[in-house]
Amino acid sequence: MIRILGIDPGSRVTGFGIIDSDGINAVHVAHGTLRLKGKELPPRLGQIFAEISEVIESYRPEVMAVEQVFVSKNPSSALKLGHARGAAICAGVSRGLAVAEYTPRSIKKAVVGTGSAEKEQVQHMVKLILKLAENPQEDAADALAVALSHANTNTTLGRLAAGRTR
């Protein structure tokens, strides 16, 4: 079993999700959202770093998977999202975690089966896959989807590598 921390970064709300995966089955460990306070960006980035650090200390994941920045219509929003990603990644790296990055499209494809899935579809599939009683909040569901995407990708890469060594 490997413990994976998934991160859905945001400058106002950052989602996190933790799963254990043996490469075939995934088990829900925890999920939640960081509601970032204040108007100024630097203190919010500090809060992301501190709170993700606490999550890492509490749950001891072995790897972190983070959603990549997508370029939206608003370059300012994309920059803020990039800063939020950086704060989360720094928290992971400073605690010795390897960090994997996935595009929003590849995450949706891994969890739902199509890269153009809607948020509600991601929430529903995360609920089903992890056998949760109810749909997780959007940002937490996205973070769990990032972790599931890493579990799927890691398993596939492991199988490919094993096939090459035979």
From TrEMBL:
Mg(2+) 1 binds at D8, D139. It is an enzyme of class 3 (hydrolase). The keyword Zinc does not apply. InterPro entries: RNaseH-like_sf (IPR012337), RNaseH_sf (IPR036397), X-over_junc_endoDNase_Mg_BS (IPR020563), X-over_junc_endoDNase_RuvC (IPR002176). Mg(2+) 2 binds at E67. One of its GO terms (molecular function) is DNA binding. GO terms for cellular component: cytoplasm; Holliday junction resolvase complex. Binds 2 Mg(2+) ion per subunit. Gene3D superfamilies: Ribonuclease H-like superfamily/Ribonuclease H (3.30.420.10). One of its GO terms (biological process) is DNA recombination. The active site is at D8, E67, D139. Its cofactor is Mg(2+). Its EC number is 3.1.21.10. It is found in: Cytoplasm. Keywords: Cytoplasm, DNA damage, DNA recombination, DNA repair, DNA-binding, Endonuclease, Hydrolase, Magnesium, Metal-binding, Nuclease. SUPFAM superfamilies: Ribonuclease H-like (SSF53098). The RuvA-RuvB-RuvC complex processes Holliday junction (HJ) DNA during genetic recombination and DNA repair. Endonuclease that resolves HJ intermediates. Cleaves cruciform DNA by making single-stranded nicks across the HJ at symmetrical positions within the homologous arms, yielding a 5'-phosphate and a 3'-hydroxyl group; requires a central core of homology in the junction. The consensus cleavage sequence is 5'-(A/T)TT(C/G)-3'. Cleavage occurs on the 3'-side of the TT dinucleotide at the point of strand exchange. Homodimer which binds Holliday junction (HJ) DNA. The HJ becomes 2-fold symmetrical on binding to RuvC with unstacked arms; it has a different conformation from HJ DNA in complex with RuvA. In the full resolvosome a probable DNA-RuvA(4)-RuvB(12)-RuvC(2) complex forms which resolves the HJ. Belongs to the RuvC family. PANTHER family: CROSSOVER JUNCTION ENDODEOXYRIBONUCLEASE RUVC. This is Crossover junction endodeoxyribonuclease RuvC. The lineage of its organism: Bacteria, Pseudomonadati, Pseudomonadota, Gammaproteobacteria, sulfur-oxidizing symbionts.
